[in-house]
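One thing: could you explain this record?
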Amino acid sequence: MPSLEMEAVTAPLDLLVVRALLVCIFTSGLASTSGGQQLADNSLTTFNFLGMESIANEVGRVAQMTFGPDGKLYVATFGDGVVSYDYAPSGELSNRTTVWSRTEDIPNGVVNGSLGVAFHEDPTLGTVMYISPAVTSFFNVEDNFTQSIVRLTDSDGDGNWGELADGEINQAIADNLRVTDLHQVNQLLIKDDTLYAGIGSRTRTGGEVSEYPDAPNPDDGEFAYTGAINWIRDLTQLSDDTTTSNTAGFDSLVHHTDTRPFTSADTGKLTVYSTGFRNVYGLAFDSDDQLWATMNQNENPLKPDELHQSNFQDDHKFPKGNEVSGDWKSNADAMSAGFFSTFKNPVALLGNHASADGLAFTNANDELSNYVFLVRFASGKDLLAIDKITGDITTIAQGFANPLDVISDPMGNLLVGQYGEGGEIFRLNALSGPFADLDESGSLDLDDWNILKQNFNSDLSNLTKPEAYLLGDLNGDLVNNEYDFALFKEAVETQGGFDSLSQLVNAVPESSTSVYSVSIFICAVLAVQLRPRHMGMVR
C-alpha cells in the first residue's frame, strides 16, 4: 500500500493549498456514476450500503427468493421452475440447479414455475419445501383456475425435489383453491411451524362491480380465502399423512358460501389469518415478530398501493363481496369467529400502479433495523426503505427491470431479484456498524482516520467491496481518493466521534503531513458537493 509519509515540503503553505485546490477541482469533474441499476443519493443509503453488484443473470423471471437450511439460495421463477444456487457473501452465485419443474400447459393455466417458495424443518419428515405452482396471469377475471400449495422432499439428497419414484413426498396439501387469471396464490412464508400464504382477490374491485355479464354468478366475487393472508397454524399436524391430496384444504363445492376458512379451529387446515386485501404479495416478519405485507391496490377507482402491518383477524379495508352470497364483512359466522371487527389503515402509500411486491428486513445495523425494504415492479422499478413508525419513504436503489422480490442474506445484505430481462439478482452490501468505522471498533475515531490517510490513492481493484471499504474506499469504486475523504468528513459531521474536524489535521504529527492533510480536506470540502456517493453497479 502506498504511504502518505512524504518528503520534506519546502514550498509555502498557501502555494500547496492552491495546488491542492486545482487538483481537486480537476479530479472532481472526472468522476461519474454508471448507468442502469444504481444506488440512490441520500444519507440513509450512503451511510449504510457499500455498493451494489449483480451476482446472477439469466436466472428466470424471479418471483420469490429464500435461503434453504443447506445455505443455498432458492429462487421460485415464473416459467423456469424453482432453481438453487450456491451462495457466498462475496462474488457471484454459482452452480445453478433446477430443483423442481413441470410441463407447461398455458391454455389450461399451467405455468412451469411458482410464485412462492419456503422451507420447514419438520420433526418427522426432515426438510420440506413448500411451493405455490403458478397459473397464467393475463388478468382475465373470467378465467377460473384451481391452484395448489404443494410440499416436496429430497430424501436422497440429489437436488431433485419431489421424486415419487424415489419415495419422496410430492403432495398437494391444498388443491382446491379457486383463483382467477387476475390474481393467485403468491409468496409463501414459514415461521416456526406456521405457514403463511397471500392469496389475491378474484376480482378487480373486491366484488363491488360486476365482472360477468348476464345473470348473477357465484364466481363473480370473493371467497372466504381470497383477498387475504391465509395460514396453516401447525404444519406438524400434517406430518403423518404424506399422500392424501388436499389434506390441509376443505372439500368444498360451493366456495362462495363456505365459511370454514373463517370458523375452523383446526390448526392443520388452511384458514384465514387477516383480510381486506386486493392482491397481497410480499410477506415478512420484523425483529419484533410483527407480520408485514404489501397490497396492490385498486384500479377503478385508482388508489395507491399500500404497506400494512397485519395481525390475526385484522381487516385492511379492501372490499370483500360476492355477487350471489353478498358481503363477507356482514357474514354472521365470520363475524362471530372474530373477523371484521378490527380495521387497519396502511403504514405507507406506495404510489399508483406501483405493484409493490416483495419486502424484507435486515438487522445488519441498528439504523437499518428501523426500516421495511420493498420493491416496486411497475411505477418506480426501485427498492424503497419505509420507516416502520412514521411511514416516511426513502429510495435506496433504482433502475431495475421489474423487481419482484427482496430478501436479506445471512450477513444482513439485501438481495433484489428482478422479473424482467431474463431475471437477475443484485446484492446491496450493508454495513454492520457505523459508516466509516474502518477498524470496526463500533465508533469513529482517530484510528479510522489513520487507516483512511495511510491508504490514500490506493488502487484496491483486486479486493472485494467489503475488503476495499475497510481500507478507506467509502463509495465503492475500489479506489481510496478525495471522494472517500469527503464522505469521511460528512460521516464525522453527521455521526460525531471527534471534538472537531480540525482534530483530524492536528492529530498528524509531521508538519509536512499536516500540510498534506489540510490539502486533502480542502478537496473533501469541494467533493462533498461534487462527489459520486456510490459508483453504481459493478457487474
